[in-house]
Amino acid sequence: MSVEVNSLFFSYDDKFNEKMNYVLNDVTFSYDKKDILAIIGKTGSGKSTLIQTLNGLEIPFSGRINVEDFFLDYTVKYKKDSSIDYRRMKKLHKKKIRNIIDLRKKVGVVFQFPEYQVFENTVFDDVSYGVKKFYPDIDCKDMVKDALSLVGIDESYYERSPFELSGGEKRRVALAGIIAFKPDYLILDEPTVGLDYQSQENLINILMKLKENNTGIIIVTHNMDFLLKYADRAIVLKDGKIIKNTDVVSLFSDFQFVKENSLDVPKVFQLALDLNKCGFNIDLYKVKDSYSLFEEVNRR
Questions:
Q1: Is 199 exposed, middle or buried (CB count within 10 Å of its CB: 0-12, 13-18, 19+)?
Q2: How far apart are alpha carbons 119 and 260 in whole angstroms?
Q3: For position 115, what pLDDT does the model report?
Q4: Distance between CA atoms of 224 and 258, rounded to whole angstroms?
Q5: Half-sphere exposure of 117 (CA within 13 A, CB side)
Q6: Which letter, b or e, does each residue of 178-187 get, where b requires 16 or more Cβ atoms within 10 Å of its Cβ?
Q7: What pLDDT was estimated at residue 140?
Q8: Residue among 247, 257, 244, 258 at smallest CA distance from 284
Q9: What is the pLDDT of residues 199-217, one digit of tens each?
Q10: Per DSSP, what are the bridge partners of residue 72?
Q11: Distance in angstroms (rounded) separating the CA atoms of residues 217 and 200
C-alpha cells in the first residue's frame, strides 16, 4: 500500500493521562494511490486532524504512519510493569521529526478555503514559495508555470497581486502553490465548498490530470454527490474512530449504516436502488450521476 496508518491516537489535551479526550482513537487504514479516497463524517469527527497528521502538521502521541518510504513511529513506550510511560511519551513526541521537509514534499495539503493561504506580493511569487522551500537549488520557473497553466491561470496574472483576484482565482492560485512542488499525494479539505457546478467540474478535471500522473488524491468532504461521482473508496469517522472503510457503492448500499449515521444518499443512487427493486438489475458501480444512470437504464 502507498500509505499505511496504524493505531493512531491524538489528543489536544496538554497532559498525557488515561482520561484523555481522543480526537483520533486507534485509527488504522491503508490507502493505495490508484484510488481516490474520501474521508467523511460529522463536524468534529476528526477528519481535519487526521489529514494534518499525514504530513506532520499535527504530531500524534501514539501509532505509526508510513508514506511510501517515509516512516513515522510514535509507538507508546512502556514501563517494566507494562503501564504507559506518559512522561517518556511526552518527551519523545515534543521533539521535531527528522527530515519533516521530506514528508511535506510527499504530502501536500490544500485546506478548506485555500484562498486564505495566499500571502506573497505577486501570483508568481506565491506559487513559487513552496518550490523554493523544498527545492532551493533548482530553477523553479517551469514548475510554477506548469502548475499555473494546469489550474487555468495564464501569464497575464503572473505579476498581479493575489489579493486583488476573485475568490475563485485565489483558490486556483493556492492550489497551484501546492501542486507546483509535485507532491506524491494531494489532500484537499472540503474542496467544493462555495464552488458552483462549473467550478467543481474544473477542479475535478485538474484532479483527474494529477491522478493520471500518479498523484494520490485524498478528499475530505460532506458533498455526497461529489463523493459518488469521483471517489473510489470512503472512510467514515465518528468520534475519532473509523467506523466504515469500504468502496463507495457498498457504503451507500448499506441502508442500516447510512440511516444510523445520518448520511445523505445521493438521489441518483437512491433511484438506482429503487429501480433495482423493480427488477432493472442496474450495475450500481456504473452509476455516478444522472447521465450514467440513464445510460444504464437504456442499456437494460
A1: middle
A2: 43
A3: 67
A4: 12
A5: 22
A6: bbbbbbbbbb
A7: 85
A8: 247
A9: 888 888 889 999 999 999 9
A10: 65
A11: 15
pLDDT at 218: 96
Q: Are 211 and 146 a contacting pair, CB within 8 Å? A: no
Per-residue pLDDT at 14: 61
pLDDT digits (tens, 9 = 90+) for 257-279: 999 999 999 999 999 999 999 98
Contacts of 292 (CB under 8 A, 6+ apart): 286
Using a 10 angstrom Cβ sphere, with 0-12 exposed, 13-18 middle and 19 or more buried, the burial of residue 132 is middle
C-alpha–C-alpha distance, residues 129 and 216, integer Å: 22
Amino acid at 146: D
> With a cut of 70, which residues of the chain have pLDDT below it?
1, 14-19, 75-98, 114-115, 300
Single-letter amino acid, residue 33: K
In this structure, the strands spanning 241-247 and 233-238 are antiparallel
pLDDT of residue 253: 95
Q: Letter for the amino acid at 138? A: I
Instruction: Give the residue from 200, 180, 182, 198 showing the smallest Cα distance to 190.
Output: 200
Question: What is the radius of gyration, based on Cα positions, of the chain?
Answer: 21
